[in-house]
Amino acid sequence: MWREWIPFWRPGASPHAADVDLLFTGLLLTSLFVTALLFSLLLAFAIRYRANSDADRGHRIRKSWRWEIGWTTATLVAFLVLFAWGASLFLDLYAPPSDALPIYIVAKQWMWKAQHPGGQREINELHLPVHRPVRLIMASQDVIHSFFIPALRLKRDVVPGRYQDMWFEPDKPGIFQLLCAEFCGTDHSRMSGRIVVLDASDYEQWLSRQDVNGTLAAEGARVFRALGCGGCHSASSVVRAPPLEGLYGKPVPLQDGTVATADERYIRDSILLPRAQISAGYEPVMPSFAGKIGEDDLIRLVAYIKSLAEEERGSAR
Ligand code: CUA
């Protein structure tokens, strides 16, 4: 294969990996070309105008606009092409398809915890089905970590205080390395794990072998009750709070006239920073749950609120 000459090159495990390799090679060749050009000119001039050479030093050439404009334009065009190439790949990498399998990741010193929608949980391992788009919704419990899977050519910083997401579609079964690529404390170097990509049937088997305590949404429903959220967010409550049924994925008009989309990030922010984005037509009465609820429970709540929308869509059909 054409990539094998790159030092340290390892086969990728998703279609995007090949795109990233191509971009990498493009950047490498462009840099090599520019470096070679610069150094050969440097060398040629150094030899031509060395001390005691008989080169003509008397007639300085005047400034040439043709050259100035020429090389400036060439550089500009080269950079714009590289930018457009990188940007299109970036946009593609960060726009998950809507049917992607959502998996929640919580990073903490020093482990990766994964929660599947079915309620399966694992630490420093992530089992995934092959040929199915997977969307990771990632949160950090403490400091900045970085989720890095070299075989997928994917790395994403996981910053505390917000969700990060990324998606990919593994195209071959196998075991791939998972690393933390951001120094996060004493055991940073040991914060690694593996991604296990399985055939569809093996994956189903793996799912069914795990101990589960109900689906992630069912666990979320328990957290919802335990925190007393239903006291305001139910049809019969005295306090008027926005209904959560059918909320996920919908545009939400806000008090300041803007419109937010009710995605995972919005739901999370509404629980932790309820005063930041207030739904139009409601009083800002919601207390903040910042510091009272961990990332794991937040994820369960988010999954529960998402499931309320799916139920609604299901019953409308
Ligand atoms: Cu987590 Cu380094």
Short description:
With 317 residues, the protein is α+β, with helices and mostly antiparallel strands. Helices cover 36% and strands 20% of the residues. A five-stranded mixed β-sheet has the order 3-2-1-5-8, with helices on one face.
Named once each, the bound ligands are: dinuclear copper ion
Which fold does the CATH topology of the largest domain refer to?
Immunoglobulin-like
Q: Mind telling me which CATH architecture of the largest domain this is?
A: Sandwich
Total number of strands: 12
Uncertain stretches: none
Give the helix tally. 6
Estimated radius of gyration? 27 Å
Word description of this protein:
The structure is a single chain. The chain has a 5-stranded mixed sheet, with helices on one face. A 5-stranded mixed sheet has the order 4-10-9-6-7. A two-stranded antiparallel ribbon has the order 11-12. It has helices spanning about 15-50, 65-95, 200-210, 215-225, 265-270, 295-315, and strands at about 100-110, 110-115, 120-125, 125-130, 135-140, 145-150, 155-160, 165-170, 175-180, 195-200, 250-255, 260. It is of the alpha+beta class. The model has no long low-confidence stretch (mean pLDDT about 85). The chain is elongated, with a radius of gyration of 27 Å. The protein folds into 3 domains: about 15-35 and about 65-90; about 100-210, Cupredoxins -  blue copper proteins (Immunoglobulin-like); about 215-315, Cytochrome c-like domain (Cytochrome Bc1 Complex, Chain D, domain 2, Orthogonal Bundle). Dinuclear copper ion binds next to loops.
